[in-house]
Write a structure and sequence with these properties.
The chain is of the alpha+beta class and 459 residues long. Helices cover 36% and strands 21% of the residues. The strands form four sheets. The protein has a seven-stranded antiparallel sheet, with helices on both faces. Helix 8 packs antiparallel against helix 13 and helix 13 packs antiparallel against helix 14. The two termini are 22 Å apart. The structure holds flavin-adenine dinucleotide. Flavin-adenine dinucleotide binds next to strand 3, helix 5 and strand 10.
Amino acid sequence: MLIEPGVISDLKSVLGPDNVITHSSELFAYSYDGQPINAIPDAMVMASNVQEVAEIVRFAGSHHIPLVARGAGSGMTGGSVPEKGGIVLNLELMNRIIHINEEDLIGYVQPGVITGEFQKEAAGRGLFYPPEPASSAFSTIGGNVAESAGGLGCVKYGLTKQFVEGLEFVTARGNIVRTGVYTDKDSPFDAGAILAGSEGTLAIITEIAIRLIPLPESRITVLALFRTLVDAAHASNSVLSSGVGPAVLEFMDGKCIDTVREYADVEIPEGTGALLIVELDGDGDYISAGHELLLDVLKRSDPISVKSARNDEERKELWKLRKSLSPSIGKIAPLKFNEDICVPISKIPDICAFIEDLGSKRDVMVVSFGHSGDGNLHVNFMTHWKKPDEVERVKQGVDDLFREVVRIGGTLSGEHGIGIAKRPFIPIALDEATIEFEKKIKRAFDPDNILNPGKIFPE
Ligand SMILES: Cc1cc2nc3c(=O)[nH]c(=O)nc-3n(C[C@H](O)[C@H](O)[C@H](O)COP(=O)(O)OP(=O)(O)OC[C@H]3O[C@@H](n4cnc5c(N)ncnc54)[C@H](O)[C@@H]3O)c2cc1C
C-alpha cells in the first residue's frame, strides 16, 4: 500500500467517507480498462464538482500521491490504470449536459457525460456531434477529449480535438483554469489544445465546450465487396482521391467477415476477402451527384459487388455488419491485442499487404478492420492466456507491425493513445529531442509528477 492509513483517514475527512472507496473488492473495478493490464489503486474517490476536483488534486499533491483520472475506463492502452497505485479520481458523477447553445453551435458538458447521450441530446435539437467512437454508448466525453478519440465520422469532420472549443481544467497544483470560449481574452498559447490527447497526464478536465454542426439533411450508405484486402485498400484510396468526400469510409478484412457471418446472421458470399462501407452525408443534390460518382469509382475498382441501401431498413442491415464486429471478434479468442495504427492514406495498400503476411510469418491470427478513410487501421492479434508461446509470437508480431508503421511514416496510434501498452514503442517513433521536449511540457504542467505518472514516456 502506497498511502498510509492515516492519510486515507485525512482524505475521508476532506471528502466525506462515502466518497472515498478503499475496500479491495470494490477497488478491483478501478484497476483495469479495455486492455489486459491491471493495478489496484489505494483509493478511489468521486468528485461531484470542480471545487472537489481541485481539493483532491491539492490533497494528492501535498502528499505526493499519484492521481489517475478515470472516465468510463474503456480506454484501450491502460491510460486509466493506476500503475503506481495511489488515487483513482472517478469523474462519473460529473455527468451533466450543462447547456447547448443552439445559436452559437456549442454544447457545454461535464467530463463524465456519456458521448452517445450528448449526441442524442444534440440530435434532438437538429445538431450533430460527428466524432463517433465505437464506444460512444459507454465512454465519456472527458475520456474522449483526453484521448482525442476518433471514430466513424472523423474522415470528413476530424477527431475529437477538432471539436474542442474551450476547456475548464484543474492544474496539478489545484488551480482552476478556463481556456478558449470560456475566456474573452485572447491567449497566445492554446493550453486547451495541448490537453486534448494528453491522456490525463497534464491536468484534470472538468468542463468542455464542444463544437456542434447542423445535422446533415440526408445520408446514403454503400457496401462494396472485394476479393482481397489489398483490392479494398486501393478502392478506398480511389474513393478519397475522387473528391467525393465520404463522411464514413470503413473497411473489414476477410477474417472479420467470416467471424461476423458466423456469429451475427449476415449474408455475405463465401470467399469475400474484404469490404468497404462508404457513407455520404449532406443535402439532397450533393447526395445524388456524390452517390453516382461513388458508384462509378467503386465499380471501376474491380469489386465482387456494390450495393446501396435504399432505405433506413437496408441501411441498418448494412451497418449490422460493422456493428456486430466487436462482439463477434471477442468470440474468436479471449485475449486480444488491439493496435490502432495510423498510416498516410497512400500507404494503406502497402500496410494491408504487410498485415496479411504478418499472421503467417508469426503463425498467429490477425484480423483487421477500421477507418481506412483516415488511415487508421485496427489490427487485432487474437490469442489466449493459456498459450504463452503464442502470446510471445503475438508480441513479436506487434513489434514487427509498429516498426513497419514507423518506417513508412505512420504513427503508433490513431485514436487509442499511448498509455502503458504502447509506451515501450515511443523510442522507435520519436527521436530523443522530441521526447525531451514533450517531457518538458509534462514538467511545466505537472512539476511534481502527480497526474497519471509514468504514462506515455518510458521512464
Ligand atoms: C468496444 C470498444 C470500442 C472502442 N472504439 C473506439 C473508437 O472507435 N475510437 C476511439 O478513439 N476509441 C475507442 N475505444 C477506446 C475508448 O473508448 C476511448 O479511448 C475513450 O475515449 C475512453 O473514454 P473513457 O471515458 O472510457 O476514458 P478512460 O478509459 O476512463 O480514460 C482514458 C484516459 O483519459 C484520461 N481521462 C479520463 N477522463 C479525464 C478527465 N476528465 N481529465 C483528464 N484526463 C482524463 C484517463 O486518465 C486515461 O488516461 C473503444 C473501446 C472499446 C472498449
